[in-house]
């Protein structure tokens, strides 16, 4: 029967049993290990990456006659499909600002289970945008035009919400250093530790947007939404607003949900590893139980602006008022301001030179 060869976790050297210490000892870095501790370490290593992170999507279908008054409008530029009631006339795509045309009666997609109704109206959205643009001296004038600000649109954005109990473990390599003086030398000793954490965490409503037209970073920036204010979906909540028809399925968003879950678990475990000079993550394993995904609509005020051939998208959380969006810089305004400051500085320097020259 072949004997298992143990490698030193610190330097990867072959470990030997030391008769005097009655422990396994590395002859290269002289680190000692309890036999049971090293066996547990290798068992933990074998489980690294054995994640079980599959989700079940809850299905809900439209009630008979529920979609009779709903129409689908298709953007001829970006291909986005917008849902609105049949009274909506000609409109523009909330994502690229190009005209959209009615393509038929709405049908086919899953019915949302929940909706968070808009709490902030259009006037609040316009004020949020004005506040966002306030004191931006080098902002192109088109962004400050009141007529342009009137174009802000209320859109229900599709979200997949993931709930699960997660359990698992994580391994960390940690060090602790001690220094002392021996004669003319400063000696630093480094202790190496292998730290293991294990636990169970409940996740609720891990939200991933289901629209490819809405940038993921923008949607994550206007979070969080308070799901406690969500209500069972009814088409009445869509009256006066647009709704984005999801084009990213729950299966396609699962990896992003898993990434957020892994990050949260690592942050929780990592926060308990204290008292060391350095901590490095080595591996982990996560298992999900009762993992389910549900479909909901979240309220967002959207404004799209084109300037110098580029589109700029702004978003405001229609529940909390959080406003985000990147702003361009008008280089002409910036250059003129710089030249003005430079001219003033030159006059001051000349004046001081003339004054002290006379003295």
What does this protein structure show overall?
This protein has 359 residues and is α+β, with helices and mostly antiparallel strands. It has three domains: 47 residues; 206 residues, no CATH class; 31 residues. It is built from six helices and 16 strands. Strands 4, 5, 6, 7, 8, 9, 10, 11, 12, 13, 14, 15 and 16 form a 13-stranded mixed sheet that branches.
What's the SSE blueprint?
Layout: E1 16-18, E2 23-25, E3 32-33, H1 35-47, E4 56-57, E5 70-75, E6 81-85, E7 91-92, E8 99-105, E9 114-115, H2 122-133, H3 146-149, E10 153-182, E11 185-209, H4 216-221, E12 231-232, E13 242-244, H5 250-270, E14 278-307, E15 310-317, E16 323-325, H6 331-358
The main sheet comes to: 13 strands, mixed
Ranges where pLDDT stays below 50 over 5 or more residues in a row are none
Determine the number of helices (DSSP H or I, runs of at least 4 residues).
6
Helical proportion, percent range: 10-25%
Number of domains: 3
The number of strands is: 16
Rg measurement, Å: 30 Å
Please identify the structural class as seen in this structure: alpha+beta
Share of β-strand residues: 35-45%
- Mean pLDDT across all residues, rounded? 77
CA(first)-CA(last) distance: 101 Å
Q: Strand-and-helix sequence, N→C?
A: EEEHEEEEEEHHEEHEEHEEEH
Shape: elongated
């Amino acid at each position: 029967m072949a004997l298992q060869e143990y490698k030193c976790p610190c330097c990867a050297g072959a470990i030997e049993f030391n008769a005097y210490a009655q422990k396994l000892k590395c002859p290269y870095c002289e680190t000692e290990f309890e036999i049971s501790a090293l066996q547990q370490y290798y068992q933990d290593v074998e489980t690294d990456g054995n994640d079980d992170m599959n989700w079940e999507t809850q299905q809900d279908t439209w009630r008979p006659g529920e979609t009779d008054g709903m129409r689908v409008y298709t953007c001829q530029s970006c291909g986005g499909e917008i849902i609105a009631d049949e009274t909506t006339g000609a409109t523009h795509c909330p994502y690229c600002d190009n005209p959209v045309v009615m393509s038929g009666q709405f049908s086919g997609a899953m019915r949302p289970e929940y909706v968070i109704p808009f709490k902030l109206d259009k006037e609040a959205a316009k004020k949020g945008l004005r506040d966002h643009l306030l004191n931006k001296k080098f902002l192109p004038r088109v962004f400050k035009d009141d007529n342009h600000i009137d174009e802000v649109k209320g859109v229900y954005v599709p979200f997949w919400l993931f709930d699960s109990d997660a359990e698992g473990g994580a391994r960390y390599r940690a060090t602790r250093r001690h220094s002392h003086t021996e004669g003319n030398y400063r000696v630093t000793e480094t202790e190496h530790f292998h730290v293991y954490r294990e636990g169970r965490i409940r996740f609720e409503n891990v939200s991933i947007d289901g629209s490819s037209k809405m940038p993921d970073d923008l949607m994550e920036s206007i979070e969080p939404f308070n799901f406690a204010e969500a209500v069972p979906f009814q088409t009445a909540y869509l009256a006066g607003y647009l709704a984005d028809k999801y084009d990213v399925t729950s299966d396609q968003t699962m990896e992003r949900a898993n990434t957020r879950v892994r990050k949260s678990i690592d942050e929780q475990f990592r926060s308990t590893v204290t008292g060391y000079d350095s901590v490095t993550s080595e591996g982990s394993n996560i298992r999900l139980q009762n993992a389910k995904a549900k479909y909901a609509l979240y309220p967002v005020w959207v404004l799209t602006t084109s300037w110098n051939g580029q589109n700029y998208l702004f978003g405001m959380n229609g529940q909390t008022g959080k406003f985000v969006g990147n702003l361009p810089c008008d280089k002409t305004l910036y250059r003129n301001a710089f030249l003005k400051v430079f001219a003033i500085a030159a006059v001051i320097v000349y004046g001081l030179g003339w004054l002290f020259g006379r003295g």
